[in-house]
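Chapter summary example.
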Amino acid sequence: MLSLSPGRVYEYVEDGRFSSVRAAHVILIPLEEVKNFKPNIAGRPRKSVLRWRISPENNVLLSTSIVVQIQAGAQDLLMSRLEEIRQGEQYLFPGTVARFIVRSERCILE
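The structure predicted for these 110 residues follows.
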């Protein structure tokens, strides 16, 4: 639910970012806090905007696009399934620079 490692959860409890109660060997965190949790930005914020890059000819950047048409009302189901795949670390696409899920209201297959 949090997409955090157990060690990170313990760290947040120790730092006071989560209130908790110990019950035997288990730490209980209120469900409302888990639902409202917003992680901090990882790393240092950029001070300048990066310049455009063009890959050298001997280092071609490859792109893979997967286009999915969904029926009306099925978007939540698709997003839920994609989240399961992401959290389960399935289909990692090794060697890729970035992975994005992009949504469009219009059909891009035209």
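To summarize the output: The chain has two domains: 1-41, 59-109.
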